[in-house]
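Data availability excerpt. The first of two example chains:
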Amino acid sequence: RKEVYYMIKKLNKMRIKQRLNYAFRGIIIAFSVVSLLVACILLYMTMDYNKVLNNYAFPQGDIAMAMDEAAEVRSASRGIVGYDSNDLITSMKKQHDEHVEAFEAKLEEIRPTMITKEGKECMAAIDKAWEEYIAIDKKIIAEGATTDTNKSLEAQRMMINDMAPKYQALDDALTNLMNVNIKKGDAEQQRLFVLMIVALIVIVAVVVLVIVVSTKAARAIAKSIEEPLDGMVARFDTFSQGDLDSPFPVVETEDEIADMDG
């Protein structure tokens, strides 16, 4: 209220043109500030949204593909030790190596997005599980990539007893990483939603404040021009009717109306 009072006093010391220019310039500046505030909030929210996508949403798809590749590696290994045809064994080994390469490439795509402590710990667990799994996988292939029935049966026994727990550990590590990303992504999404609500409240509050101040200033300017003019018109009316003694109304502004009164 005090700020508005001092602003009105300042306006009353200006000429009408200056007063109007000052008021309109103030309104334009105020709404420009609001527009800049909105733009900054939108920019921040866009950047934060991109962060959520890049660090939590997109990696979920990559993790799922890595899990698929790991499953394909295991399936190819089963084919290698299960087939009794050299051509089929060679074909499955080729597929096996391709899936191994694809899995490791997918891990390297995921790794840079793991920026949290939990994410990095999950990646370390995946690396350890994969190293242990691929080690036993190589032994099994070396043993069972043959048409020799006894060797194939031994390799299949190793798959059940030795490789299955290693694969489960790898799958668990990948699943844990997926869950971490989902949890972090959901938390970031909720934070972004709260930020959006707060931003909307702030923007609405600032707009309302600007409208209230601008309306009061406009009314005050209109009143400072209207009332002296009405008083002058009324006095001129009595003057035209022969009243030469009544004083002219006192004008408190220092503008063109005050000049007329003087």
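And the second chain:
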Amino acid sequence: SLEVNRDHVVLDDLWVWRADHGAGVGWTQNTAATGGIVNGDDVSATGLFVEHYQKFQVIWRGERGNVTFFQSELPYDVPSQDAWRSSRATDGYAAFKIGDRVKRFAGYGMGTYSFFNQGLDIFAEHAYEVPVTPGVRLTDLLTIFLDPANGRGGIRHVVNDAGGSSTIANPDTPVTVTSYP
């Protein structure tokens, strides 16, 4: 929905959204892979809301990026785990993926929520997928599993393999990572 290919861009108070519930929408009816892709260097975002896309919510490839306040919900309408894998070995898609070649990035106050409403256990292996390098730092991350009466599955780790899971075992409870790495 949004692609930034310029350097020195400021993104402020954006809500990028794919409809995944309500009348006339569905996994195969209104498809959209990724909400935001940032390729430019020195891009800053404040108040970035990206929700319900069918793959990564955000892919950030630019150097020296900075995000202050990110909020995301994974897609509600995933039809099966087989339909939602970022690789053969990785269930689901992270809400926020920082490109493997990125050397410097800072993220502050980032939250991701899961609610899979198709009556199946659907999992995302992690909410944030980042390269492990000293220049990529995330501060104050959380995940939350929503609506245990109607939802299933959840998020297994907050960032990469760090942080606990947010599933039906701990609904409506923030699972946090204060600082990564």
